[in-house]
Amino acid sequence: MRAPLIAGNWKMNGSKRDARALLGGVAAGAASLQGAEVAVCPPFPYLALGEAELADSVVCLGAQDVSTESAGAYTGEVAAAMLAEFGCRYVICGHSERRDYHAESDTLIARKLQAVIANGMRPILCVGETLEQRERGETEAVIGAQLDGVLGVVGIETFADLELAYEPVWAIGTGKTATPAQAQQVHAFVRAKLGVSDRRIAQGVRILYGGSMKPGNAAELLAQPDIDGGLIGGASLDVDDFLAICRAAEAAAG
Ligand SMILES: O=C(CO)COP(=O)(O)O
């Protein structure tokens, strides 16, 4: 049984005051949840606030990115050990915005996974296709190549220590959600592909869906057999919306 995980990716949004209010609201609202796990991933400067506000809460803290390097002359980078020091449990790796705006390769992303796991945290590895790729019928080829690019560096055993997120690029921040059937098809493809290498690991890995998940569509998406949670962007910035999605996950967990 894979307990659902709802993770909020705040991206580069909010102020210190907003962050404090959001953290407090989520911590209070999530206290009574059963069977679903909740995490929030604020921008780096708010991680200390997250550590403090979530100290007595069931909500986990996560980060949005990490360096491949452990220390040294890497201006602007943040090491995995630093994230661990602030109580992070999760680190988003290979988000499409980083693949696109920062030219992150599968090899670089694989090294980030290694850094995160070596420091006792769990990566949330994102994969997904663009609209053009979907329209050309390349969805599975693209996602398969993203997985192979990582697998070539880290091996299948690493997938026992991470979560996956399927985030179709065309659904991110656009209000266009993949239909439950479209999402389920890709999630099942990902699990089957990993299953060729290791069936037990493939059955255990949580595959989150991300891309305009909202209170209105969360229940249907989370009811799919291979959708094990959500990676939430815009709706994670609103306490009520985010908690409504968490409750949908709780209901899906039954
Ligand atoms: O990119 C996402 C989460 O990582 C999804 O963002 P939205 O929920 O805003 O579409």
TrEMBL record:
Which compartment or compartments is the protein found in?
Cytoplasm
EC annotation from Swiss-Prot or TrEMBL: 5.3.1.1
Write out the GO MF terms.
triose-phosphate isomerase activity
Query: What domain of life does the UniProt record list for this protein's source?
Result: Bacteria
* Pathway(s) annotated for this protein in UniProt: Carbohydrate degradation; glycolysis; D-glyceraldehyde 3-phosphate from glycerone phosphate: step 1/1; Carbohydrate metabolism; erythritol degradation; Carbohydrate biosynthesis; gluconeogenesis
Q: Name the top EC class.
A: isomerase
Catalytic function, reaction form: D-glyceraldehyde 3-phosphate = dihydroxyacetone phosphate
Tell me the keywords, alphabetical order. Cytoplasm, Gluconeogenesis, Glycolysis, Isomerase
Positions annotated to bind substrate? N9, W10, K11, G173, S212, G233, G234
Annotated active site: H95, E167
Oligomer status and interactors: Homodimer.
Q: Tell me, what does this protein do in biology?
A: Involved in the gluconeogenesis. Catalyzes stereospecifically the conversion of dihydroxyacetone phosphate (DHAP) to D-glyceraldehyde-3-phosphate (G3P).
The family classification in the record reads: Belongs to the triosephosphate isomerase family.
> What protein is this chain from?
Triosephosphate isomerase
